[in-house]
From TrEMBL:
The protein's name in its UniProt record: Metallo-hydrolase/oxidoreductase
Keywords: Hydrolase
Domain Metallo-beta-lactamase residues, every copy: 35-247
InterPro entries noted in UniProt: Metallo-B-lactamas (IPR001279), NDM-1-like (IPR050855), RibonucZ/Hydroxyglut_hydro (IPR036866)
GO terms, molecular function: hydrolase activity
Pfam families the record matches: Lactamase_B (PF00753)
SMART domains assigned to the protein according to its UniProt record, in alphabetical order: Lactamase_B
Length: 317
């Protein structure tokens, strides 16, 4: 047995991989098992962050580094020539929230003083009762205290310090009223937050709206279709648009995934997908369509949202 004291290498609740030339995907291993995806895009003069995760509520509380900002500024990354994403925090941040759920906003306080962007679609939803809308209250989590500094309109392009980030904001209400997507026109990448993903239930909270969501899905599908047609006409070397979600799915074929998910949800509304499970969440009966753990698409939502959507769309089952 050796008497040497070996230093332990530092540990963290974040893992990181390079998604594109300019974007890193960080995944937080959190105690709620959300495993949120945090996307960080590097510009010459700025760092754009889409969502901030669960605020370091690590599944393993003994890990050394739990601060997202510290991770971005200090953690050496093999895919980045051994350097942190934003060494010594030299570049200022623009932080965008795809929507206000706790697993996307709980590290926002670490970026106080930075530009913080949210959808302008329903400011009141964001500014009133964040504790309830973020789900912090129902989970017994302290609600983060931060200020939105820029309300992004639908189709707005983001700028930072007069620098064009070449990122377009698309309002996509449905999962929540404030849900948004980002379109990276230089890399043909669409970032959609929790609007959908594969291999895990796409969840609607009590504040969700399936008719709005279908409208947003149609909008995203048409948007991607138009971009794909343009890329084909331009004889671009890559004509695929990729979709990147808040959980599970990244770098997926956007058009195919959007189309399949839309079909699945319409089949639910027509009554052709059986309910596979039910539970009471925040006082409402929630139902599960699809088999969790095996099906590519699963929807978990308050049953009320399905009944309301059938009513509004005049679908008789
Ligand atoms: Zn969400």
């Amino acid at each position: 047995m050796s008497s040497w004291q070996f230093a332990q290498p530092p540990t963290t609740c974040f893992t990181v991989s390079r998604l594109t030339n300019t974007v890193f995907k960080i995944v937080e291993d959190d105690m709620y098992r959300e495993l949120p995806f945090i996307y960080v895009k590097v510009y010459p003069h700025s760092i754009l962050i889409l969502d901030t995760g669960c605020g370091g509520a690590a599944r393993d509380p003994t890990v050394h580094l739990k601060s997202l900002r510290q991770f971005i500024e200090t953690w050496p990354i093999i895919d980045n020539a051994g350097k942190p994403i934003n060494e010594r925090g030299r570049k200022p941040y623009v932080v965008v929230q795809s929507h206000l759920h706790y697993d996307h906003i709980c590290a926002m306080e670490q970026f106080t003083g930075s530009t913080i962007v949210a959808s302008s679609y329903s400011k009141l939803f964001v500014t009133s009762d964040l504790a309830t809308h973020s789900l912090c209250r129902s989970l017994g989590i302290r609600t983060p205290n931060y200020q939105i500094t820029k309300w992004a309109g639908d189709c707005d392009f983001l700028t930072h310090n007069n620098f064009d980030l070449k990122i377009q904001v698309l309002h996509t209400p449905g999962h929540t009223p404030d849900s948004l997507a980002l379109w990276d026109e230089e890399e043909n990448m669409l970032y959609v937050g929790d609007t959908l993903y594969e291999w895990a239930p796409t969840i609607f909270p009590n504040e969700g709206d399936i008719v709005d969501w279908l409208g947003s899905m149609d909008k995203l599908y048409a948007f991607v279709k138009e971009k794909t047609t343009f890329l084909i006409q331009e004889q671009s070397s890559n004509t695929e648009v990729y979709i990147n979600c808040g959980h599970v799915t990244s770098y997926g074929p956007a058009l195919e995934i959007l189309g399949q998910m839309n079909e699945f949800t319409l089949a639910i509304l027509r009554g052709s997908v059986p309910i596979m499970g039910e539970s009471i969440k925040r006082g409402e009966r929630n139902v599960v369509y699809g088999r969790q753990g095996t099906d590519r698409f699963v929807v978990l939502c308050p049953e009320r949202l399905i009944l309301e959507a059938r009513d509004k769309l005049e679908i008789v089952v």
